[in-house]
């Protein structure tokens, strides 16, 4: 049995976060507040020996990972392994649009008004499916497409031959990805109406590739 301790950090604040725009596979740079927030979590984790580091191939995730690793005093890992498996949900046509307007268009045909309404009545997986239905190009990820991709990311970590039982692994993640993970694996332990903060820490364990939630949004 191999257990890996994953430290999931939401990337630092970006300009799209300020402008309330959806940024899944699209990207905007870290703000100064985002850089400072990444430095803060870097200091919090500076004494954690990371055997590996992973992130999506978006600039905001790579920048956050590099800042955290630069602050680490006990790890030999100094560069993250970036891969598309770790990207945020793909919002298709709605990439870069106002968050409230996009989710209103997804929720409206079902008699609802927001992603909060969808999640309260159904789930985050259903929200993905509704957004794909509303996408005129049908390019947004539904929940099946999303999890097929994200699960490959966790398999990449679990199968990494350089990682051994008990190792700590840094993973830079994204807001809706963290919410989706909690929705799927935390068994209702957390109030998911509260979004994870930029620069926040969520911890999970990979036990022979299976996810166990330790804590959320610290």
UniProtKB/TrEMBL annotation:
It comes from the Bacteria. Keywords: Hydrolase. InterPro entries: His_Pase_superF_clade-1, His_PPase_superfam, Phosphoglycerate_Mutase. GO terms for molecular function: fructose-2,6-bisphosphate 2-phosphatase activity. Gene3D superfamilies: Phosphoglycerate mutase-like (3.40.50.1240). Pfam families: His_Phos_1. The active site is at residues 11, 88. The keyword Ligase does not apply. GO terms for biological process: negative regulation of glycolytic process; regulation of pentose-phosphate shunt. SUPFAM superfamilies: Phosphoglycerate mutase-like. Substrate binds at residues 10-17, 60, 88-91. One of its GO terms (cellular component) is cytosol. This is Phosphoglycerate mutase. It comes from Ligilactobacillus pobuzihii.
């Amino acid at each position: 049995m191999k257990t890996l301790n994953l430290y999931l950090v939401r990337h630092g604040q970006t300009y799209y976060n300020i402008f309330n725009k959806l940024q899944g596979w699209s990207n905007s740079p870290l703000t100064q507040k985002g850089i400072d927030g990444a430095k803060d979590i870097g200091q919090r984790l500076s004494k954690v020996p990371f055997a590996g580091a992973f992130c999506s191939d978006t600039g905001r995730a790579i920048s956050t990972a590099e800042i955290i690793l630069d602050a680490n005093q006990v790890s030999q890992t100094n560069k993250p392994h970036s891969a598309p498996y770790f990207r945020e949900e793909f919002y298709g046509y709605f990439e870069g649009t106002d968050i409230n307007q996009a989710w209103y268009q997804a929720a409206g045909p079902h008699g609802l008004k927001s992603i909060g309404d969808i999640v309260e009545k159904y789930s985050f997986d259903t929200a993905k499916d509704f957004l794909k239905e509303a996408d005129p190009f049908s390019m947004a990820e539904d929940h099946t497409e999303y999890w097929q991709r994200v699960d490959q990311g966790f398999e990449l970590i679990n199968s990494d031959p350089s990682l051994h039982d008990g190792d700590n692994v840094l993973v830079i993640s994204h807001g809706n990805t963290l919410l989706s993970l909690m929705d799927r694996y935390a068994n209702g332990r957390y109030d998911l109406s509260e979004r994870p903060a930029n620069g926040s820490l969520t911890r999970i364990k990979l036990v022979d590739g299976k996810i166990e939630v330790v804590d959320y949004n610290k």
